[in-house]
Structure formats: C-alpha cells, structure tokens
Design goal:
- This protein is α+β, with helices and mostly antiparallel strands and 477 residues long.
- The protein is 28% helix and 29% strand.
- Helix 2 links the parallel strand 19 and strand 20.
- Helix 2 runs parallel beside helix 4, helix 2 crosses helix 5 and helix 7 crosses helix 8.
- The radius of gyration is 22 Å and the shape is globular.
- The relative contact order is 0.11.
C-alpha cells in the first residue's frame, strides 16, 4: 500500500472511511454468552393470514456488545418503513429478555430506536423482542416495491423486518442508519444468523414457500435457517415450477411460472449456473449451499442473500438470444452475491461499490461465456447512455432512476474498464479477488476498495480517479 507515515492522519482516514472492525470483547462478570457465536442473531416467528395478507411477527434480536463502552439503546434499520405511505408496518411492543415492556420506542424514517432499560456492558448480549404486524399490500403505484408486496400469483417478503444498524460506522460510539430515499437502495446490513418460522393460515392448497438456506415443512408451517447472511427473503406461490442444476457443491434452484417457455427457462438456468461458476472463479467461493432464483411478478430484478428475483417481463419478452435482458438481469443479480452479500457497502452513500461492480461483472460473464457478444453488450448496456456525473454519487442526489443508474452503474463500468486497461488484467483481477477476500463479511468503504491496489498502480491511475471520482484522491486525505 502507499507509504503513509503520519499515524494520526491514518487514524483520521479510517474514522472517515467508517468501516468498523471491532474485536470481540471479553464477557463481563455475570455474562454467560458464547463469544464464538455470530454477533447478530435473529429468531423470527411469523403467522401469515393468507386471506388478509397480514403477517403477525414476533422477532427476537440477540446482539453482542463487541465494543468498549456500554450500550444504552439498540438502533435498528426498519426497511418496511420505506413504505410508510402504504402503512405496511404496525409496531405493537418491545420487551426485554425477562419480559419487561420497553417504553419510548421511536421510529424516524428508517431509524427504529429501542431504548434499553439497563445499560448493556461490553461483552454482553442485548436481547430484545419486537412484536409488530406487516400488512402486505398489493403491488401498485402506492406500494411499488415488488419484493414486499403481492400479486394474483405471488406474495413476497423481502426486507420485511428491522435489522440492527451499524455501530461506530460513521462516528465512534454512535449508531448509523441510512436515511430514507426513493431512488436506489438504502441498506448496509452486517452479517447475521436467521432462524425463521412461518405459519400460513387460510392458505391455498399447494402453496410453496421459497427461501434460501435450509427449509423444512410440517403442515402449514415452514422452518428456515440461514447463517452468515445480510437479509432473509421469502417468496410464496401455488404456481412455481422448479428446475435445479448443480454447480460443484452448490445447487441452483430456479422457480418459474407455467406460462414460460422451456427455452426461456433453459436460458435462465444456463445463465445462473454459468454466472455462479464464473464469479466463483474470479472473486472467490459462493458462501451458501443453495442459490435460489425466483421469477418475480414485478419489474426488473432484486438481490437478497442466497436469493434473487428476475422479472417475469424478461421471461415473457425473451427473444431467443443470450444477450437479452433475461440474461443481463439474471447475471447482474447473481453478481450481487459477491458485491452486496459477501462484501457489503453503504448502498445509499457509496452505491457504486456494489452496482458498478455487479454491472461490470456482466461484462466478465460475457467475456468468459460468449466473447462474440462483448461489443454488443457495451453498445446496448453502456454506450447508449452517457453522463458526466461522478461515479461516487449518493442516491440522495437523484430524484429519477435513469440519471442515477447512468452514473453509479454505467459510468462506474467505464471507470473500472479504464482501471483495468491501465494496470493490466493480472493486477486488476487480483485487486477484485483480494478486495472480495479481505472484506468478506464486512461493510466496506471506498477507502477499503482503493487501498487494496498496490502503491504504484494506485498512483498510475491518478488521472482516471480524477476523471471519474470527485473524491479521487481518497487515500491522500
């Protein structure tokens, strides 16, 4: 890395970068926690009334205080409150582990604050149980996020429960939750373990509950477990048709509707399996035993841990070619298993860290599987859109999707290609691999990304950084 001799300056840089890497604190006297367990663990017991589409949720959060000061509150990121206009979430109560009701719980946009009756010392667990309802609304202009909505043939639960915010990410000793916005994503979740029980009352015959991790069913109740994930998504339907294929030790499962042609299903499966193989080779091993791909009954696609949606529109309009949106969105969302799931980032303030990388991964997919289509991909995906906006924008600077995508996604691709051409393939691919390896399981910052380049190569691309980034000299500050 670059030689930076001023220790104080380095410490300031790290605070600005905001990537917390706390070491587990020793348990204080009286704490009986197991420090070998993951810091954040969720147990969710949910009952869905299919006739009303209301999910009654009891969520227990276990969070270990790995910091050197007491915690007096637990601050959560409540993504369901992104849909506040649709009144999706109704909070009922919060309790301590011994059943004491907690007063003074507040919600401010996405920030869900639970004051703790007693300060929790370093090395001890915070245990809080939340009770609330999720009123799943039909997909509409008022409720446009298909991953938390229902249609005639699908009900989806994505980002449907609060998750623990980041402690010390922005300012030491303080909680950080991104602000709410309606362009882009605003999540920055740390890894957690999830145990979810879903009981469905009044459900239709033949209902399938599709989720990542391990899933078992007993009557109208499904029990699911996923460890080391950023989130936990579920999709339900009576119409899913399942197609499976193995890629090494990983099983790819594709769930589609009977209306789709065998050829489009085969194309999506080919794309999914090849993308998994290509990205695993380039960036490191995929972290789960299953990869679930679900045809989403809504526009575009979306990524979750071990689980992605690909829009029904791309199956329906597939034209028989391997450079259609069906392929592009499938491989893009799967790339997020590395650039979001494996290495997370603040999607609101640093969206290029996952979106530019996932989009550039599309190019790498075509280079590896269909090199004759590389130029067509550039022309269709990137070159027909142009902007001079910096790549390192935030989502808060935009009120429309297209200009935001042009900057964070597509100009980000141009930047990465310029870096690749300047430093050469060997250095470039080692950079991506090392970044994915060294920051797996963490919430990375732009500082974390760029400091992974060797000193000489970081200096070599000075003009590129100045051209594409408004904070192009991030390591010198």
């Amino acid at each position: 890395m670059l030689q930076r001799t001023l220790l104080l300056l380095t410490m300031v840089m790290l605070l600005i970068a905001g990537t917390p890497h706390p070491q587990p604190a020793a348990a204080q006297e009286g704490c009986t926690i197991d420090t070998t367990l993951r810091r954040t663990r969720y147990e969710i017991n949910a009952v869905l009334d299919w006739s009303t589409k209301v999910v009654q949720v009891t969520q227990t959060i276990r969070y270990r205080n790995d910091y050197d000061q007491d915690l007096t509150e637990l601050v959560l990121h409540s993504e369901p409150h992104r849909l506040s206009r649709a009144n999706v979430m109704t909070f009922r109560s919060a309790q301590t582990e011994d059943g004491q009701f907690i007063e003074g719980v507040t919600v401010d946009k996405l920030r869900f604050t639970v004051p703790l009756p007693e300060a929790v010392p370093s090395g001890c667990d915070v245990v809080v149980t939340l009770v609330y309802d999720i009123n799943v609304k039909p997909l509409s202009d008022e409720n446009p996020l298909g991953w938390l909505a229902y249609t005639e043939r699908q009900l989806n639960l994505g980002h449907w429960f609060p998750t623990v915010g980041l402690y010390g990410y922005e300012t030491a000793g303080e909680w950080y939750v991104p602000d709410r916005h309606y362009i882009g994503e605003q999540t920055a979740p740390e890894l957690a373990d999830y145990r979810v029980t879903m009981q469905v009352n009044n459900g239709p015959a033949g209902l399938q509950v599709i989720a990542p991790g391990t899933v078992s069913q007993a009557g109208n109740t499904w029990t699911m477990q996923l460890n080391g994930a950023r989130d936990f998504a579920i999709s339900m339907s009576t119409q899913f048709q399942k197609t499976t294929e193995a890629v090494g030790d990983v099983t790819v499962e594709l769930y589609t509707y009977p209306t789709e042609t065998p050829a489009s299903i085969a194309q999506a499966m080919t794309d999914a399996t090849q993308a998994l193989a290509v990205y695993s080779d380039l960036f490191g091993a995929y972290p789960f035993e299953r990869l679930v791909v679900v045809e989403g009954d809504f526009d575009d696609g979306y990524e979750f841990s071990g689980f992605v949606f690909v829009s029904e529109a791309w199956f329906r309009t597939w034209n028989g070619t391997p450079n259609h949106w069906l392929t592009i969105i499938t491989i893009h969302e799967i790339a997020h298993q590395w650039w979001y799931m494996l290495v997370a980032n603040d999607q609101a303030r640093d969206p290029y860290l996952d979106e530019a990388f996932a989009t550039y991964s599309e190019l790498l997919y075509f280079e590896a599987t269909n090199p004759d289509l590389v130029q067509a991909w550039w022309d269709f995906r990137v070159f027909r859109y142009d902007t001079t906006d910096p790549v390192d924008i935030t989502v808060y600077e935009y009120t429309q999707w297209r200009p935001y995508i042009n900057a964070a996604y597509l100009r980000g691709v141009r930047m990465l290609q310029a870096v690749r051409e300047a430093v050469g393939d060997e250095v470039f691919f080692q950079w991506l691999h090392d970044y994915a390896h060294d920051y797996q399981g963490q919430v990375a910052s732009p500082h974390d990304l760029w400091q992974m380049l060797p000193d000489a190569d970081y200096l070599l691309i000075s003009d590129i950084r100045s051209q594409y980034l408004r904070n192009g000299d991030i390591l010198e500050k």
